[in-house]
Amino acid sequence: MTHGIVLIKAERDALPVLGSRLAEVEGVAEAYSVTGEWDFVAILRVAEHERLAELVTDRLARLPGIARTYTMVAFEVFSQHDLDAMFSIGA
């Protein structure tokens, strides 16, 4: 599994709707609206690393309202959420 983090700068008119559009894209595990220089952060999860480039360039960057993206690929994933789920016994 390959994980990517995409910082997204949105056009002003797209701010109210872009988050839900991002969340609907297959491969986007989570989408957050954030403060600061960037408007959204999308967390990507794909089975093969080759799909990451396709997802960012063919699907995300072409969504209406996206002005700019900056993509980072995760080397390792550390998540308390994943650990809690792994050791959970039907809670």
Number of helices: 3
**CA-based shape:** globular
Distance between the termini: 26 Å
Structural class call reads alpha+beta
Largest sheet: 4 strands, antiparallel
Q: What is the total number of structural domains?
A: 1
Helix and strand succession? EHEEHEH
In CATH, what is the homologous superfamily?
Answer: Lrp/AsnC effector binding domain/regulation of amino acid metabolism (RAM) domain
Summarize the structure in words.
The protein is an alpha+beta fold. The chain has one domain: Alpha-Beta Plaits (2-Layer Sandwich), CATH 3.30.70. 32% of the residues lie in helices and 33% in strands. Strands 2-3-1-4 form a four-stranded antiparallel beta sheet, with helices on one face. A hairpin with a 6-residue loop joins strand 2 and strand 3 (40-46). The radius of gyration is 14 Å and the shape is globular. The relative contact order is 0.28. The model has no long low-confidence stretch (mean pLDDT 89).
Features:
single chain; 91 residues; alpha+beta; Alpha-Beta Plaits; globular
Give a brief rundown of this model.
This protein is of the alpha+beta class and 91 residues long.
Secondary structure elements and pairings:
Blueprint: E1 2-10, H1 15-24, E2 28-33, E3 40-46, H2 50-60, E4 66-73, H3 80-87
Antiparallel strand pairs: 1-3, 1-4, 2-3
